[in-house]
Amino acid sequence: MKAIIAPDAARTPGVAVICVYDAPGAGPADVAIYSGDGKYLSASGWQESRVSLPVDAHDDDSGCLRLQVGAAVVDNLDKLERYLLPDPEPEPAPMPAPAPDPEPEAEPSPLLAGAPLEMDQPAAETVKEKKSSGSLLWIILGLVLLALAAAAVWWFFLRATPPPPPPMAPQTPATRQEAAAPQQTAPAGTEKAPAAPAAVAPLQQAREHLRGTADPATSLELARPLRTPQAGNDESDAAFLLLEDAAQKGNAEAMFLVGQFYDPQSKLPRGSIPADMSQAKHWYDNARSKGYAEADKALAALRRHVEGEAAKGNAEASLLLREWK
Question: Which of 309, 290, 287 is nearest to 299 (CA)?
Answer without folding.
Answer: 287
